[in-house]
Amino acid sequence: MNAVKATIPVLTAATLLLSSATGTYAAAPDQVVDRETVYTLLNSDGTVKKSIVVDWLYFKGNGNVTVTDYGQLQHIRNISGLEKPVVQNGQIIWDAEVKGERSIYYSGETSQPLPVDVSINYYLNGKKVDAPSLAGKNGTVKIEITLKNRLKQKKNISYSGYKGARHSVEKELYTPILSLVSLNISTEHFTDMKLGDAMTVMSGKTMSATWMVVPNPEETITLEMKGTDIELEPITITLIPKLPPVSEVPVKEQLEKLTDGIQQISSALDQLGDGANQLAAGNRQVKNGLNQLSEGLGQLNQVNQAHEGLVKQSLETNRQLLALAQNLAAEKPQDANLQALVQGLKGQQQMLKMLAEGGNLQGKPFPGLDKMEEGLKGSKAGADKLAAAAGQLEKGSLQLKTGIEKLSGGTAEMKNGLIAGLNKLYEGEAILHQSKTAAEQYDTFLGKPKGAKGEVRFILKTDPIEPVKVKDSAGQKPDTGSEEENISFFEKVKKWLSDLFLNP
Fold it and tell me: Is Signal among this UniProt entry's keywords (predicted)?
């Protein structure tokens, strides 16, 4: 028992010592910012020669803190202090003493593929050549720089369209990578430059040309110039996960109002078309009624003509009977019956004549059957004209309805086209928003501490194209090391990066 009791203090002390040595009691920082700059040396054709990540860890806190960064790096170097990280399983663990705020700059090599593949082709007088063979030559040089975005992803994008209708579409999107391609061109070696959309600045005898593209998924920059004793400075490519500023479409509100107006016109035309259809139906009924009236008047006229023929026949018969009765009465003037018969036949003759030819009856005009025939014929002709007019109205109403239907169809097509265009506009805005979000989320190349705010930039540089120079060893100054001791930290970083890019 005493042996066990004696062992406990020893184990406790050892545990505390080990805990202290491994940093168990180191606190997490209050805030961490991780800014990565990836410097990549490219061969002249754009293939990667070497990539070095320079990571700036900035954190706030007090006391001994531990920051765990992530990334597969080789040859890690602290370029801002003496601390050395613990590297294990893709973790880069830093223990540092912090008084308010602290920065650690460190570098390391990586073989991780860049987000953009670069391919560069060179032509001399129309013939494809490798870059080194251009040095010292004369002729027309053409350079094609192709950037291909590798950050492809499928996204299901939901958005509200016209009148709030919900839409969903699956799109293949690329994380926006703003790419600045720069080349300094000596006017002593090159003339007749065709630089496309490059932004140019003259500095002495050097023209600085910069192209800005966003490969989605691919962009090619082409430049052409006439060279003498050709030398080319390195091509520098800066990659920034960012979407260039895009102004809002100012016509969206006007298009929405126009679509609403077309919708109202379409509804009004539908109502007008229904009215034209009803008008055509009404005119059809009037026409049918007038046709029936015309048919009835025709039949009535036929009856009238039959009556007129009968009356004329009766009038002739009565005239013959009257003549016979008058002859008999003249032979027998004393016969009262014959006298009465003559008077009766005379009265009947007058009535039949009035029926046939018309006249006055009890002081009022009485139309004859011949006048009635004229009236019936006129009425039938009028009914036929009215029926024809009603038919024309029906035809016109149907033509109006057809025209309205065509106009309504064109208006509906216009409305549908505007709605489809607006929906495409809404879809484009949703895609733009998704792309912007993807660019914001691409804030690290290798990984960052948990909860850290990240930022990543890429600087790519090709080999220069120049005649091979033989170094004069006799002219080199001996490296005493004293100069390096006297320069500041930031000058050390600058010198280190300069050595990295100028003397790879």
Answer: yes
The CATH number covering residue 301 comes to 1.10.287.950
H or E element in which residue 37 lies: strand 31-42
pLDDT in tens, 144-171: 999 999 999 998 998 888 888 898 999 9
Give exposure, 387-424, as e/b (b: 16+ Cβ within 10 Å): beebbebbeebbebbeebeeebeebbeebeebbeebbe
26 occurs within a structural domain: no
| Residue 343 resides in a domain | yes
**Predicted pLDDT of residue 336:** 80
- Is the pLDDT confidence value at 323 over 70? yes
- Our count of domains for the chain comes to 1
26 falls in which pLDDT band (50, 70, 90)?
low
Q: How far apart are CA 184 and CA 207, in angstroms?
A: 6
In a domain, 383, yes or no: yes
Q: What is the DSSP letter of 131?
A: G
At which residue do the structure tokens 């007090």 appear? 62
Q: In which residue are the tokens 């007088």 written?
A: 125
Task: Write out the H or E segment, with its range, that includes residue 300.
Answer: helix 252-331
In a domain, 381, yes or no: yes
Residue 245 · residue 217 · CB < 8 Å: no
**Contact residues for 312 (Cβ-Cβ < 8 A; gap 6+):** 356
Contact 234, 185 (CB under 8 A): no
Mean per-residue pLDDT, 55-66? 93
Question: Which residue segment(s) compose the domain that 363 sits in?
Answer: 255-423
What phi and psi, each to the nearest 5 degrees, are found at residue 199? -90, 130
Give the model's pLDDT for residue 480: 47
Both structure tokens of 221: 């920059």
Task: Confirm whether pTM is higher than 0.70.
Answer: no
Q: Yes or no: say if 217 and 158 are a contact pair by the CB < 8 Å rule.
A: no
- Inter-CA distances, 173 with 146, 150, 429, 444, 503, Å: 19, 11, 13, 19, 38
Q: What is the residue type of 330?
A: A
Cβ-contact 34, 452 below 8 angstroms: yes
